[in-house]
Fold this protein.
Amino acid sequence: MNLDTLPVLSLAAPSGNLAGDLGRSFQRFGFALVADHGLDPALVARGWEMTAAFFAQDEAAKRRWYVAGGGGQRGYTPFGTEIAKGAAVHDLKEFWHVGRELASGDPLTASMPANVWPDAPEGFRETFTALYAEFDRIGAQILSHIAVWLGLTPDWFDPAIAGGNSILRLLHYPPIPGDTPNDLGGAIRAGAHEDINLITLLLGAEEAGLELLTREGRWIPASPPPGALVVNIGDMLQRLTNHVLPSTTHRVRNPDGARAAHSRYSMPFFLHLRSDFAIRTLPGCVSADNPDRYPEPILADEYLHERLREIGLKV
């Protein structure tokens, strides 16, 4: 495996080979590029169209859907709200969150707020409900391969993510003002961070800017072929596997030249555990050389809210 190049892996490859290839890429980089995932191109195209149309509205129209005190978990989060853990300046982005639709009376509603749906653009709810379901399906498929690589049964994650608090984020990075896009007091589109969740599935990284930090301290691009997903390990899976699968630091740097005058859009799906799942170190990931870093388990919901406070979305 090239130390500075992420492999492109086909989700249609034979299961045994894919589990090994994914595991090695995740162990080395914390990331993988995944093609042949089965997302409907027409549905994805509608998603991009709706994303651009929503964020093209004026600030007042978008702020109608901001949920004060909601920790950014649903609806609109304004530009300059989120800050990477430990950073001094806020990210140059705004976003929208879609969560899981729960049946009335579901016990998980206590930890998962209801979705917020805008009245424009038309078809927004239908489009992103469908995309959410597709990301959910593909994420579960990838987790089944990870389970095999970890020596678990392919369905090990199924009950852990059933009804999980996963989030589909629609991201807009507006054009960078002025002639010096990298002279903004250190602010960049997304400061160096790790994700909170189990795994992240990302569409839209064909536009340059997404970079990950290698174990040797080099920033390298995560550049998928058109339509492919960037998939990365989050902190919950890092903790569950006792760092056998690392949650890798990544960022979205500011564009250079003419690209600074253009918006950047991306669509990450943060696949989460059930709110009531206890994150407890997997026994197979503990050894004399890798002692248990987390002897005390923590509920997924407690862990999530701990991290939301760290990134400025919750007080």
